[in-house]
Design a protein that fits this description.
Layout: E1 5-12, H1 15-24, E2 28-33, E3 38-43, E4 46-52, E5 58-63, H2 79-88, E6 95-97, E7 105-110, E8 116-121
Parallel strand pairs: 1-4, 5-8
Antiparallel strand pairs: 1-5, 2-3, 3-4, 6-7, 7-8
Length: about 120
């Protein structure tokens, strides 16, 4: 399966404090908006999403259709195809937003240890 760009999404309590912490580790703001309570930070190919008040905890995030620069890929597995394959494998889907036949959509699963995985397609 082609899962697309990878990042870890962190639920944070203070966006500015988290931003400053990761800046001290060499991360730079790549996308997002403090006004909308989230930032995507980048260090080389490593992406970290900081999300204040959107969810608790952390999750692994895959963005089908994007590379690590958030550039649209011409060849990728659509999120609906990934969803179908996950369900065929017998993996329970916790949440999904897949109303259309193409374009943006998402779904969430958990691994055997309860770690959350978000598949979030923007294209």
């Amino acid at each position: 399966m082609k899962l697309g760009a990878f990042s870890i999404s962190l639920g944070v309590s203070d966006l500015q404090a988290s931003r400053d912490f990761y800046k001290n580790l060499g991360f730079e703001t790549f996308a997002g908006s403090e006004d909308r309570n989230y930032l995507i930070m980048k260090n080389g190919e490593t992406l970290i999403g900081l999300f204040q008040g959107m969810f608790e905890g952390s999750m692994l995030t895959f963005n089908p259709g994007w590379d690590q620069e958030a550039t649209q890929l011409s060849d990728f597995d659509d999120v609906r195809e990934l969803h179908r394959r996950v369900k065929e494998a017998g993996i329970p889907v916790i949440q999904q937003t897949l109303a259309e036949t193409s374009g943006p959509g998402s779904f969430v699963i958990q691994d055997p240890d309860g770690n959350t995985l978000l598949f979030d397609q923007h294209v």
